[in-house]
Specification:
This protein is of the alpha+beta class and 509 residues long. Helices cover 30% and strands 23% of the residues.
């Protein structure tokens, strides 16, 4: 038809092709996938959720998410295993798409198995594979009972559900014991941090207890459980006479909503609540959107502003109300949002109590607070001038704080050195050389930035400045350098030993 719509003579449902279902959840990370499963547990009133890594012969071979929620009967579990079967969600439910269980699990593993029982119903179990995700296998009820009765958990499982990943694709495949220990420790820490942030309100309110452990099938027992603690992105202590947090008022198309604008105190920027997941606080600036007290977006300005260091203390929390929902698109991984043009315009024009102007005014206040925190007082102290190896802000801090001696700048740089020494002093080339082979220990894993480790480099400049102030070293200076070299080498050995002990402890679990 050219000038009108064609007539529809019949309508039928077409099952989703397996290639389509495999595409769903492709953007899940391990952490967001687990958080999606925990959403399901919370929605069925679980008081306890256990995330369990399954270990066999030293390797992590699977994972289980165990909860004591209301459980599922045969009909409910069939609905849960059907792609895009969307039940009716209440205002307090975290679920949104009807995809989480399948998409999250099959984004990480080749097999998904679910075991569940509810009061008054026969145990039910289902299994699907990533290769044929629309084919659902029914697990024998006796096997479901056997699994649920042999969980070794510290809470009753008269009802509840186990989501099990078999043949995980994203887990480490290395057979090296040290690699396995390190991978597991990093994965557990990252998971605990992410969950602690995403569910911080619910954990604080004691609505749910979330624990992570490692179960060794060789000894049929688990290691020490790690209870997930809440990490509140707004968990700072308010300062006297501080005008923040301040209410932000949003008004458009007859919709009224509120949020809270925060300027994080610079003096508290060392807190884990500021450095979410151990990352620089500047990466956490922006909007924090909550739905049913579940954090859906951790920072970011949604194209309303550009992230920059000057705004690192600026954070805004907004609860998604029923009125706001039509103007917000939640991605399937629940790790970010898209706002429509109406809501974006309303946020730009929103009023902030105590300020004249909208969002720009608040960002200006946050920028001014950051600038105030970086005001320095000149001291009657002399140091050699820092050169390469320091960022622009550190060079500015040196210039504003100390006087510089009349000598060429000193660089602090990385290079490969086959010796055990963590650093070398090169008076002729006016350089402190850091040993590249210890970069992960000194600067943190994965660092490749030439201006990394400003704290360590500043300490080194404070200690070694005087040796670069003259043209040559006397016997006393040479003896001091030899002593500092021995002490720093001993400290490095102890640092490596502590890391090895931590890895060994993680492996024992």
């Amino acid at each position: 038809m050219v000038n009108g719509a064609p007539r529809i003579v019949r309508v039928r449902d077409v099952p989703a092709d397996s290639s389509i279902t495999r595409a769903v959840g492709r953007h899940h990370t391990f952490e967001t996938a687990i958080a999606d499963l925990i959403d399901n547990s919370i929605d069925v009133s679980a008081a306890n959720v256990l995330v369990r890594f399954v270990q066999k012969a030293g390797a992590i071979v699977g994972l289980r998410v165990i909860d004591d929620g209301s459980g599922m009967d045969a009909v409910t579990i069939d609905d849960a295993m059907t792609f895009a079967h969307k039940r009716e969600y209440g205002d307090g439910d975290i679920g949104h798409f009807g995809l989480g269980l399948k998409a999250a699990s099959l984004s990480q593993a080749n097999e998904l198995r679910v075991y569940s029982r509810s009061f008054g119903a026969q145990p039910a179990g289902r299994a699907i594979s990533a290769t044929e995700p629309t084919r659902v296998g029914e697990i024998d009820p006796d096997d479901v009972d056997a699994v649920l009765d042999d969980l070794h958990v510290d809470f009753p499982m008269t009802k509840g559900t186990v989501v099990e990943w078999g043949d995980p694709r994203t887990f480490l495949s290395s057979t090296k014991e040290s690699d396995r220990s390190q991978w597991l420790e990093e994965r557990v820490r990252s998971l605990i941090s992410h969950i602690g942030v995403v569910f911080h309100r619910k954990i604080t309110a004691k609505q749910v207890r979330i624990v992570v452990d490692v179960f060794d099938t060789d000894v049929n027992d688990s290691g020490v459980p790690r209870v997930v603690a809440p990490i509140d992105p707004f968990g700072y202590d308010s300062l006297p006479n501080d005008s923040f947090p301040a209410e932000i008022r949003i008004d458009f198309n007859g919709i009224e909503a509120t949020g809270n604008a925060h300027v994080w105190p610079a003096s508290q920027s060392g807190r884990p609540e500021y450095r979410l997941g151990g990352k620089p606080g500047a990466l956490a600036q922006g909007f924090y959107f909550y739905r049913a007290d579940r954090l859906l977006q951790i920072g970011g300005w949604n194209t309303l502003a550009v992230a920059r260091p000057e705004l690192e203390y600026a954070r805004i929390s907004i609860d998604i109300t029923k009125a706001l929902t039509p103007h917000i698109t939640i991605n399937p991984e629940k790790a970010g949002l898209e706002l429509d043009s109406d809501l974006k315009s309303a946020l730009l024009a929103a009023s902030v109590v105590g300020l004249e102007g909208g969002l720009d005014s608040f960002l200006g206040s946050a920028q001014a607070a950051r600038a105030d925190s970086r005001k320095y007082t000149k001291r009657p102290v002399e140091l050699v001038e820092p050169g390469r190896g320091f960022g622009a802000e550190m060079l500015e801090a040196f210039a504003a704080t100390v006087e510089t001696v009349n000598a060429e700048p000193v660089d602090i740089r990385w290079r490969v050195d086959s010796s055990e020494a963590p650093l070398r002093i090169d008076i002729e080339r006016r350089t402190i050389w850091l040993n590249e082979q210890y970069r992960d220990v000194i600067a943190g894993r994965g660092s490749m930035d030439a201006e990394d480790s400003p704290f360590v480099k500043t300490l080194l400049l404070l200690v070694y400045s005087k040796y670069f102030e003259g043209s040559h070293l006397g016997p006393r200076e040479k003896a001091e350098l030899a002593a500092w070299d021995q002490l720093l080498t001993a400290a490095l050995r102890e640092e490596l030993a502590q890391q090895a002990r931590q890895m060994g402890s993680g492996n024992d679990e």
